[in-house]
Amino acid sequence: MSDTKHLSFADTLALGGMTLALFLGAGNIIFPPLVGMQAGANSVTAGTGFIITAVLFPALAIISLAINKGDINELTRPLGRAVSIAFISVCFLTLGVLFGTPRTATISYEAITNGAQSTLTQKTVFSFAFFALAGAVLAKSGKLLEIVGFFLSPVKIGALIFIGVTAWIYPTGALTSAVDAFDTHPFGTGFINGYQTLDVISALCFGAIITHTLYQRGIVNAKGILRYSSRAALIAAAGLVLIYVCYISMGAHTLEHSASNGMQIMSAYVETVFGVYGRALLAAIITLACLVTAIGLTTGTARYFHQITGISYGLLVTLSLVLSAMIAILGLDSLTMLAVPVLSAIYPAALVVVALGIVRKWLAIPTMLYRGLFFIALIVGVISAFI
Questions:
Q1: Which Pfam families does the record match to this protein (predicted)?
Q2: What is the DSSP letter of 255?
């Protein structure tokens, strides 16, 4: 393929919008309002720390993957095949079918029912319908950029920006008071909260989707992959900063001072400002956000395991969707207790892999040094997560 192959401005913008939409799962949307509420008058300082780890680090992860030809196996090659496969598999399985993907249906269901009592049958029907819809989109994998980039992403992002900017212009209350660590160490606490989004691992999954989408558009050379992946990362980062700033401001001016999560803050705001239709609007946005993230996690995980096992991509997608639907029905409380520590344990190692993937473009890193840094980070992560 010629190196002169280019994406149009519209396609590049759609690729960036798709990347942004993949990141904006429900967890990412409900995190910033809670940070804003707890930081209050210190929300600017705390928000800066949050944005560094929740936006800058994931953007660098996409760029690091692009530097390595968009191939996660190439990124982790110095670890050796066995360690590389084990590490990436744990990342993708935990973030995907065993936790992250099922959670998208559970959060959507809770947003729609607003905590109302429901039967197992209702949960089952919703869960399988949700993932059937995701499967319908994935069945058109060659049209992923058109469906997600040109249609779902603009609707989802536009609605989030509309609510966010409204919250910025029309706050519902005065600034809250900073509490606990946000009062004494706002920057560091915001930094840690952004770190806990664990989006660097998500970026490794989504970066592979970007690369595959570029292949489908005829961009197969290393320079083109790096160029357009970097542009997509920058577009997504700009969108994340805008949305996070607005939703941190929403939390910093909330009237729900006793809220325990960001969903409660958002619900209170939309109901106050938009009335009876606000709640329906929020439920629709959360469901759409979760659907796009479920699509991204499913296709990223399926593509990786297809690459290393040779099992049919379609079969892997089907298995992932069915398992995710079943796990979502069973409930995720116990899974959350198991999955979050695992992700937290491997996260420092993922950061090292991302950093070294960038450094390797300019400096030759001895294999033993690469492996040593990786295992030190992994040990630190395990100790911090489980002790």
A1: Branch_AA_trans (PF05525)
A2: S
